[in-house]
Amino acid sequence: MKHQFVIRIAVFSAVAVGLSGCAAAQMGLSHKNLNVQTKMSNTIFLPPTSPSRQTVYVQFKNTADQSLDVPALTQELDARMESQGYRVVPYKQAHYLLQINVLSVGKMAPSAARNSLTGGYGGALAGAAAGGLIGGSYLGAGVGGLVGGIGGLVADSLVKNVTYGMITDVQVGVRSRHAVQQQTNANLQQGTSTSTTQNTSQVGHWMDYRTRIVSTANQVNLSFKTALPVLQGQLVHSLGGIL
Fold it and tell me: Which residues, 6 or more positions from 236, have their beta carbon under 8 angstroms from its beta carbon?
C-alpha cells in the first residue's frame, strides 16, 4: 500500500512538472519578442503657426522613484524638436512651452497601466508602481498545487512574463497675444471627514493643453536595464510629435 502511494505521488509529480513545462514553453513562445506600446490619454490639437514662431522652451522633470538621466533626455528631445524645424529657446522667447514630468517607471501590471492612461493628466497612478508578482505572470501555480507546487516552482523559476511601464504627464502651453483668464477650483481633504474648497483666478498669456503618455514594454524575463532605454526612446518619440 505504501509502495503504491509512493508510485502515485511520483506519477503526479511527473505530470505536474510536464504540464508546467508545457505552460512555460507556451509563455516563452508567446512573449519571446519585446513588445513596446505607447499611448496618449488625449490628443492635443495646436493651432498652426508661422515658421518664425516655431520656438519652444522645454522643462523636463522626473519625480519617479527611479533615477533617469534627465539632461540626456532633454538633449535628445531638443535635437528631435530641432530636426522638425523648431528652435529651442529661453522661456521668455518661446511661443510653445513643453513641460514633462515622469511620474512612475518600473514593473507594472498591464491593468494598472491601462487604468493610469484612462485617468489622464493628473489622475491617480492606479497602483502602477509595484514589485513582486505585479508585472510578472507566474506559471504553474495551479498545476503545481497537485503536488504541493513542485511543478509550478520549477517553471516559475525559469519563465516570467514581465511588463515595465513609464507614466508621464505632459502640459503644452501656447503663448497668447491676448490675456488668458484662468479659474481654479480645488477641494482639499482635511482628515477623513472635512474638506476645504479653494477658488482662485488669475490672468496670464498661456493657453494650456494637457495629456498623459503611458509606455509599456513586455517580454519574457525582461530586465529593467533592457526596458528603460526602450521606454525612454518611446517617450521622446511621442513628445517630439506633439507640436
Answer: 73, 76, 77, 80
